[in-house]
Amino acid sequence: MSAGALGTVGLVTLFVTVLSLMDSIEEGFNHICRVRAARTLTRKFSDYLSALLVGPVLVFAAVTITAALQNSALVRGSLSLEALGKVLLILLWLVPYLTFWGALTFDYIFIPNTRVRLRSAAVGGLVAAILWQSVGWGSPGSSCRRRSTTRSIRVLRCCCCFSYGSTSAG
User: Measured at the alpha carbon of residue 126, what is the angle toward residues 125 and 130, in degrees to the nearest 5?
Assistant: First the structure.
């Protein structure tokens, strides 16, 4: 088998795996929201493609913006100023939370095959973003991959429980 054919098989396998994962995520959200009808295949393709492009872009933007701002000489110099330094520190601290909040709110609105109220999605996204970001900050050994993965799984479980509670109540 040639390298080109192997690359094509790998790309097709990745594509099918991603679509299957997105379908499973949609089934989970639809179950939480008590939706019985699934999307058509063409609608799944276009909606999943949109979700796969927007979500990672927002997450990547959060990480990149925070890293760039923290390493900027202008920002480091401004941090030495009393009032401006405090404001910049707060903004640097908030950027990842706000970006994850936006990404998760988008997911909560877009993935279920039903209309989700913006307020419910925003509250769920805010709580999930706070949990997601905060779990990594407060635990010892956060550089350890295994603990990081375990924390991420715990946060995802909390997000699912909160999503179920917020959609059941509303």
Answer: 115
